[in-house]
Structures are given as C-alpha cells and as structure tokens.
Design a protein that fits this description.
105 residues; alpha+beta; 5 strands; binds FE2/S2 (inorganic) cluster; 3 helices; Ubiquitin-like (UB roll)
Length: 105
C-alpha cells in the first residue's frame, strides 16, 4: 500500500507499507521527518500529528474522544488533523497523501 508523505517544504516521500499498520508506524518505519510516535501509538503524545489531504479525509474512520483530546494540545490543529497512530492503513487508502506539520521536525 502506497503512502505519500509531503513535508511542509513540499518534498514528497512515497513509501510502500503493509496492510494493517498505522500511519504513524508507516512514517517511523520509513524515517519520515516530523513524525516521532513517542508514545508508541497509545494516543498519548500527539507527536504523530499529521494533516490528511482533503480528498482522503472522508475515507478515514471518525475521530474518537481520546484522539480528539490529544489533538487539542497540538499547536497547529486544523480540520484535516489526525493522529497517525489512530489511523490504520488499508487497501482503500492506497495512494493516500499525508502532510507532515510545520514545526514538527
Ligand atoms: Fe503518540 Fe500517536 S504515537 S499519540
């Protein structure tokens, strides 16, 4: 499954990952700058904050309460913000475009 990570400078990194991992794991496994995943995916650190391309946003599962609370501590929360650890990669998301936030390096 292909994922396109675009940083805030516009540099695109495309990675190929297996079905069922999270967008955070897809980023950290491929050393995408800006995505740390400090808490290991337990929705407790918000260092996996990402912006989802509008074309793909509606295809994701809705934001759960805990994710919503963690997103509230993110500086640059936007309507397209998600925590990468809470979004699982699936074949329906093949080709998804994700932007890594400015300020996360
Ligand atoms: Fe910590 Fe997602 S990895 S909140």
């Amino acid at each position: 499954i292909k994922i396109h990570f675009v940083d805030h400078g516009g540099t695109e990194r495309s990675v190929e990952v297996e079905d069922g991992i999270s967008l955070m794991e897809a980023a950290t496994q491929n050393l995408i700058p800006g995505i740390d995943g400090d808490c290991g995916g337990s929705c407790a650190c918000a260092t996996c904050h990402m912006h989802i391309d509008p074309e793909w946003l509606d295809r994701l599962p809705p934001i759960e309460d805990q994710e919503n609370q963690m997103l509230d501590i993110v500086d640059l929360r936007d309507a397209d913000s998600r925590l990468g650890c809470q979004v699982k990669v699936s074949p329906e998301l093949d080709g998804i475009v994700v932007r890594t936030p400015i300020g996360q390096h």
